[in-house]
Amino acid sequence: MPTYPSSRAGYTLIELLVVVGILAIISTIILTNTNSKNHEARLDAAGTELINAVRQAQARSESDKVYTALRIQETTSIEVLEVDDTATPPEPSTTQIIHPLSKRPYRILLSERPATAGIAMDISNGPFVHSDSSTTEFLFFDPQGRPYVVGNSGTGLLAATNISVSIGGVSRTLDIDNLSGRARMVP
Description:
Blueprint: H1 13-64, E1 68-73, E2 77-84, E3 91-96, E4 107-109, E5 120-122, E6 128-130, E7 135-136, E8 138-141, E9 147-151, E10 154-156, E11 158-161, E12 163-167, E13 170-176, E14 183-186
Antiparallel strand pairs: 1-2, 1-8, 2-3, 2-4, 5-12, 6-7, 6-11, 8-9, 9-10, 12-13, 13-14
C-alpha cells in the first residue's frame, strides 16, 4: 500500500474563524461610522430647518414692518405665523406665512421629511423662556426684527431657548440671541 506525503491542501477551521472574526470587526466599524455620519446629516438638516424658520419670521417682520411669531409645538412641528398686533399683548393668528420656496403655508413637520425622519425634538421644558421664567411655544418678532416673548408678567426679553433635536444619542440645541434674534445650533 502506497503512502502519500502529508501535505496541507487548505485552511484549518481556526484560520477561517480568525479571518471571519476580523472581517466582522471591520464591518462593524464601517457601519458604526456610516450610522454616525447619517445621524449627523439628519441633525444638520433639522437644525437648518429650525434656523431657517427663525430667520424667515425675523426677515418677514423687518421687510414688511409687521409682527410675526414662530411657533414650536408637539415634538416636530414648526410654524411661522402672522400676528394680530391690535391685541395687547400681540397674539399670533392662525394665518401662516407663505414659505418663500414652496409657496405653501410655512409649517414644517420634521417627522414627515425624509432628511429629518427619526429626529426627536425635545421641548418638554417649554421652547421659549421669558425673563420671568415662564415658558411659551411662541417667539415673537417686532417690526424691527427684535425677538420677544409673552410671559406671565407680559411681554419681555427672551431669556433662553429650550429646543434640542436628537437622534441616535447625538443632539444639538437651538440657541437664539435674545437681543439680535440670531439663531445657531450648538452641540
